C-alpha cells in the first residue's frame, strides 16, 4: 500500500507543482505522486527527450503538464519556465528544488570548476527556483521542498562538493522558512538516503559498493523513488500545515551510524 491509496485522489486537484530536474529519478517520482493526487505539473531539465518522456507519463496520470528545457544555474531560464507555467496552469503551489549534480571525487583531485559546478547546480539552482517562484508562492501561500542529503550534516568521503552544496541548501531552506513564514509559505527539505534505480546510485554506489551500502542501512534495503514521493506529498499537503524549517530524513536510518561506517566501506579495498 502506498500513501496515495489512503488519500483522496483529488486531494491536490488543481494544485500546480513545479519540479526542477523533474524529468527523471527521484524528482520524476515526486512529480508522479503529485500527479496521482490530481495536481498539474511543471517540470524542467536539461534534456528535451527526457522531459518529453516524463511529461507523457505524467499526462497519463491525468496531469496537465508544462515541460521546458532550462538549466537551474540560469535564473532567467528558470523564471521563464515559471512564467509559462503560470500562464498555462495558474500560480504555483509547490516548488520542489530537486535538480542536482554529483560524482565521487576526493578533494585532492577536484578542480575548482568541479566544486563550483556542483555548488551552482544544487545551491544556486535551488535559490533560483525559490526566488523566481516567490511572487506566485505569495499568492498561493504555497510551499517549498528542497532535496538535501545526509552529506549536508555528515562528512562523507569523496563528497566534499555535494556536502557543501547540500549544507547550503538546508540553510537556505531554514532562512526562507523564517523570512517567508509570515506570508504563509512553508519551506522544508527531504534528505533521501540511497535510492534504487537512480542516477545517484549509478554514480555513487558502483561495483560492490551497492551491496555494502545496503548493509549500512538499518532498514536493510535501498529506498525507492516512491518513498521520497510520499514524503514530498506529505510535506506539501495540509497534513504538514504546521511544519516548516525542517529536514525530513528518508534514509532507512543510514545516517544514524554517522559517516564512520560509510567511510570505512568506501575506503575499504572491498569497495572496489
Ligand atoms: N570527478 C571529478 N571532476 C569532475 C567529474 C568527476 N567524476 N565530473 C565532472 N567533473 C568536473 C569536470 O572535470 C569539470 O571541471 P574541469 O573543467 O576543471 O575539469 C567540472 O566538473 C564541470 O564538468 P562539466 O562536465 O563541464 O559540467 P556539466 O555542467 O556539463 O555537468 C556534472 C555537471 C559534472 C555534475 C554532471 O555530472 C551532470 O550533469 N550531472 C547531472 C546528473 C547527476 O549528477 N545526478 C546525480 C545526482 S545525485
Structure in words:
The termini are far apart. α2 (25-36) crosses α9 (225-236). The protein has a seven-stranded parallel β-sheet with strand order 3-2-1-4-5-6-7, sandwiched between helices. The protein has helices at 3-6, 25-36, 48-60, 75-89, 112-140, 160-180, 199-204, 209-215, 225-236, 260-267, and strands at residues 16-20, 40-45, 65-69, 94-97, 143-147, 186-192, 247-250. α2 (25-36) links the parallel β1 and β2. The chain has a single domain (8-196, 224-251), classed as NAD(P)-binding Rossmann-like Domain (Rossmann fold). It is globular and about 55 Å long. With 272 residues, it is an alpha/beta fold. The structure holds coenzyme A. The site of coenzyme A has 15 residues, from α5 and α7.
Keywords for this entry:
single chain; 272 residues; alpha/beta; Rossmann fold; 7-stranded parallel β-sheet; 10 helices; globular
Ligand catalogue: coenzyme A
- How many beta-strand runs? 7
Helix content: 40-55%
Q: If you compute it from the alpha carbons, what radius of gyration comes out, rounded to the nearest whole angstrom?
A: 18 Å
Instruction: Give the C-level CATH assignment.
Output: Alpha Beta
Spans where pLDDT lies below 50 across 5 or more residues: none
User: What's the tally of helices?
Assistant: 10
Task: Summarize the helix and strand pattern as letters.
Answer: HEHEHEHEHEHEHHHEH
Strand order across the largest sheet = 3-2-1-4-5-6-7
Domains counted in the coordinates: how many?
A: 1
Distance between the termini: 37 Å
Which word captures the global form? globular
Q: What structural class should be given to the helix and strand makeup?
A: alpha/beta
Let me know the CATH homologous superfamily. NAD(P)-binding Rossmann-like Domain
> Could you name the CATH topology?
Rossmann fold
Specify the biggest β-sheet: 7 strands, parallel
Q: Averaging pLDDT over every residue, what do you get?
A: 94
What fraction of the residues are assigned to beta strands by DSSP?
Answer: 5-15%
Q: What CATH architecture do you see?
A: 3-Layer(aba) Sandwich
Amino acid at each position: 500500500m502506498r500513501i496515495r491509496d489512503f488519500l483522496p485522489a483529488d486531494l491536490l486537484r488543481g494544485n500546480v507543482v513545479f519540479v526542477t530536474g523533474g524529468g527523471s529519478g527521484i524528482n520524476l517520482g515526486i512529480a508522479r505522486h503529485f500527479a496521482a493526487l490530481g495536481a498539474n505539473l511543471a517540470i524542467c531539465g536539461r534534456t528535451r527527450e527526457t522531459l518529453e518522456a516524463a511529461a507523457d507519463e505524467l499526462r497519463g496520470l491525468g496531469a496537465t503538464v508544462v515541460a521546458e528545457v532550462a538549466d537551474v544555474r540560469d535564473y532567467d531560464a528558470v523564471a521563464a519556465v515559471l512564467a509559462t507555467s503560470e500562464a498555462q496552469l495558474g500560480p504555483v503551489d509547490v516548488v520542489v528544488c530537486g535538480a542536482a549534480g554529483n560524482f565521487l571525487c576526493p578533494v585532492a583531485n577536484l578542480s575548482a570548476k568541479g566544486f563550483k559546478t556542483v555548488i551552482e547546480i544544487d545551491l544556486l539552482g535551488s535559490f533560483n527556483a525559490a526566488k523566481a517562484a516567490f511572487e506566485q508562492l505569495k499568492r498561493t501561500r504555497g510551499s517549498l521542498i528542497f532535496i538535501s542529503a545526509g552529506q549536508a550534516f555528515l562528512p562523507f568521503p569523496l563528497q566534499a562538493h555535494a556536502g557543501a552544496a547540500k549544507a547550503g541548501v538546508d540553510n537556505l531552506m531554514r532562512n526562507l522558512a523564517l523570512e517567508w513564514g509570515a506570508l504563509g509559505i512553508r519551506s522544508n527539505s527531504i534528505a533521501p538516503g540511497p535510492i534504487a534505480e537512480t542516477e545517484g546510485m549509478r554514480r555513487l554506489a558502483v561495483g560492490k559498493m551497492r551491496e555494502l551500502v545496503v548493509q549500512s542501512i538499518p532498514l536493510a534495503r535501498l529506498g525507492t523513488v516512491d518513498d521520497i514521493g510520499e514524503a514530498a506529498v506529505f510535506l506539501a499537503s495540509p497534513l504538514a500545515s504546521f511544519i516548516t524549517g525542517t529536514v525530513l530524513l528518508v534514509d532507512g536510518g543510514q545516517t544514524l551510524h554517522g559517516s564512520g561506517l560509510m567511510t570505512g566501506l568506501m575506503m575499504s579495498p572491498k569497495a572496489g
